[in-house]
Predict the 3D structure of the following.
Amino acid sequence: MSSPPVSRDIGVLRAGWGYASISDKIADLVLTRPVRWPWLLAFFGTLAGTVGFVGAMGYLFARGPGIWGIDIPVAWGFAIANFVWWIGIGHAGTFISAILLLLRQKWRTSINRFAEAMTLFAAGMAGLFPILHLGRPWFFYWIAPYPNHMNVWPNWRSPLVWDFFAIGTYIIVSFLFWYMGLLPDLATLRDRAHTRFKQVAFGLAALGWRGEARQWARHQSAYLLLAGIATPLVVSVHSVVSLDFAIGNTPGYHSTIFPPYFVAGALFSGFAMVLTLAIPLRRAFGLEDFITPVHLDHAAKVLLATGLVVAYGYACEIFTSFYSGDEFEIAMTLDRFGGAYAPFYWMMMTCNVLVPQILWFRRFRRNVPLLFVLSLLVNLGMWTERVIIVVQSTHRDFMPSAWGLFIPTAWDWVFLLGSICTFVWLFLVFIRLLPVISISEMRELVRESAEEGQ
């Protein structure tokens, strides 16, 4: 009888790990690892922010969106900028899980699980903001087609309806894909749990998984099928969001480069958030053997590539505005350079174009603290980009009599910071309740690495 395989160092997995030790390491993070004070501190801190976010929503429902700084001509403000920012962050998880799975990239294995969770939480935050912005959010279901005696149908030419279907489809497929991958791991937790409550809870969630050959065959087929369905969604969802703007006749909006520009920006911000989460996660839970410098290096390369596409989009915007000869487009571009929102614009250019250029050098891509700071800067830069698109493009319309400034109120900042706290709080809960790395896929990686060494 041959001995179980032991991993060799293949860059994306360190040497010396076997089936049992991999399972013990990841499962123990959920089942036996004691709760420590740094996690508790972060948990209660973000919980306070989440409670504030919920309270702010209650106040919004009572008083209406007038508590924000929005007005004519800037009628969207931070709420829609936050929506576009969050839905962009949600793209990296599906890209890592679906596209890299179809491309058989081994480096996805250690990061796909928490990246998928990040996608779900970010998409949830994104879906909230258009609803909160409706004015009467309790009627949000009116944008869905449903049988009613008045025979009233949604306005299919409204971007709200497009967002409803795009985001709804994205969340459903992302959840199914995430849950499908979780099934074998839930069964592992069920079998290792020491309390009856956990055995029953994980057993119910595992849907009777026994690890039979027939179950594995069907699981792999369904997993690949969902990956095939999710892959075009990476492109389609943010393209739909970009069309919310591109169909408008507002200077700075109606540009054909918006769909690819938005998709690249989404992956850019999404991978930045993956690094923001992965770097403290590997340090806090001792996962350096699974999330190695190779993972960070590959993610940084994707960050550099998508950042270059985003920079190309910025250049195209400037070129087309002047090349078109449209005086309103030119005025809008000059206003970005030196107008009221110029600090946001130059911060965007610094964080999204200049700073990522250090990633051309390998020693910077492998410098973990530097990479963490850079990922935070990119997240900040991408948020300012959304603010520039939503706010700066609309604050000066065709007529000077319609010009106006958007000045965010304290409630605008409360909603932004509250959504970030809620996102982090959900992630903290996730890493204590479910395997943060896929156990079954890591076992497979152990076998593949052992076979490579033979």
Remarks:
- Residues 6-452 form one domain.
- The chain is about 70% helix and 0% strand.
- The CA atoms of residues 116 and 216 lie 21 Å apart.
